[in-house]
Amino acid sequence: MSLLDEPSALLRGLYGLDGKAVLVTGASKGIGEAVAKTCAGAGAQLIVAGRDQARLQAVLDALPGDGHRLFAGDLSEAATVQRLAAECGPLDGVVHSAGIRGLSPMKLVSEPFLNEVMAINYIAPTMLTRHLLARQSLRPGSSIVFLSSIAALTGTVGVGPYAGSKAALIGTLRPLALELVRRNIRANALCPSLVETPLTSEDKAWLEENRARYPLGIGTPQDVALACLYFLSQASSKVTGQAFSMDGGVEYV
Questions:
Q1: pLDDT at 70
Q2: How far apart are the first and last CA of the chain?
Q3: CB 149 within 8 A of CB 197
Q4: How far, in Å, CA of 20 to CA of 236, rounded?
Q5: What pTM does this model have?
Q6: HSE of 82 in the Cβ direction (CA atoms, 13 Å)?
């Protein structure tokens, strides 16, 4: 059987998520929505989490397969994070996609703004992971995927708080991977550059101005979703503790 057969048994075995339970936060739109749909298409049962119940329901209704669930709540609130961990049940994968951009030049950064960015981008995924581990919700062979950013690895004007929150994820990732490796649980991070989402598309002029900077093109939510699928699947069974750059070639021009 050729690897090009669609679908080949080998590819389905490597990249399929049949019978796997996967939690995706920030799943009501953009990258999180694409991740949820891609995972469901690969056979997983999804828990889609986010703030907007109506949007989550629309995503849930569009997912192929059965047995999917939604969780609506604000993950910047500690009690909500604990409630989500309690309601998940056994999991085989987690994708921490919830986040905010938090753009501001440093001279205008306020402490409440900084707290908000850190609460959503760093504290929420870190504490959700902590509660899932404390409950032993992650089965052996599970995979945790954090959505970091290329901003955590390179300097960009006006994204100090956002870059700091995403860099904090990478700083936490590597000790976490060491803690979990003996339990056969993997943890990795994706670091996309600019991704064309409803949020980034609001300013068309800015988007087009930045498009020329990326020789391989601006990323799409589906690009990130496919990378998440790799890290959730058996294809990456020997990969942990890695921060994977998806920069569209911008670092090389």
A1: 97
A2: 41
A3: no
A4: 15
A5: 0.92
A6: 3
Element (H, E) at 139: strand 138-147
Where is pLDDT greater, at 15 or 124?
A: 124
* Catalytic site positions: 162
Q: What b/e sequence results for 205-216 when a residue is b if at least 16 CB atoms lie within 10 Å of its CB, and e otherwise?
A: eeeeeeeeebee
Which of 241, 25, 17, 240 is closest to 128 using CA atoms?
Answer: 25
Sorted by sequence, the CB contacts under 8 Å of residue 221 that are 6+ apart come out as 30, 31, 33, 34, 35, 195, 196, 197
The per-residue pLDDT for range 69-127, each reduced to its tens digit, is 999 999 999 999 999 999 999 999 999 999 988 777 888 889 999 999 999 999 999 99
Task: For the chain, state the CA radius of gyration.
Answer: 18
pLDDT in tens, 116-142: 999 999 999 999 999 999 999 999 999
CATH code matching the domain that covers 16-242, chosen among 3.40.800.20, 3.20.20.70, 3.40.50.720, 3.90.1150.30: 3.40.50.720
